[in-house]
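Here is one chain, start to finish.
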Amino acid sequence: MHMGKMVQTVVGFAVASGMTAVTAAQAPLDSSKVLDTLVACQAIRADDARLACLDEATTRILAARKSGELLALDRGKVIEQKRRSFGLADAGSNPLGGGEADRLTRVTEINTTVTSVQPAGYARFALQLANGTVWQTIEPLTLAPRPGTAIGIKQSGFGGFKATMKGERPILVKRQR
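Its structure:
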C-alpha cells in the first residue's frame, strides 16, 4: 500500500470511529499493525499531540520487539540467507509469510565458481562451489569441470535446477548440502 494512502486510511479510521490518533495509538494493536501507528501519528498537526502519539507508538514498538512480536529484518541479510539455502528442499517456503516481502527478496539464480570436483559415478560429479554449497550433476558430463570455472545455477521447470558452465551445455543438477 502506498504510504500516503496508508496515512489516509489509518487517520480516516481514527476520525470515523470518533477516536483521536493518540487514542488509536493506545488501543491494543495486532503486531502487524504496530508500525502503522507511526504513520497515524505523523498526520497529527498539533506538536504536543503528535509528540505524545509518537512516544506511545515508540513504546509499543520497543515492547513488541522485546517480546518478539515484531521482527525487523535487513533485506540484504534475508537475500543472503536465501542464497545460502537456494536449492535445498525447504528453500521454497516463504519465510516472510509470502506476498510482497518474499517476492522482493526471491532468489532464483546464483552465480559463483567451482572450487573442487569429486567424481560421483557414471560421469556425474559433486561440485563444491565458492559459496560453500555442494551440487551434484544429474546428467552425465563428457569432462569434469575444472576448479575456478564460473557456474550459474537457475531454477528450471518442475522444481529442478539447471547449471550453466562455460564450454558445457546446460545440465540438470541437485543440491547436496
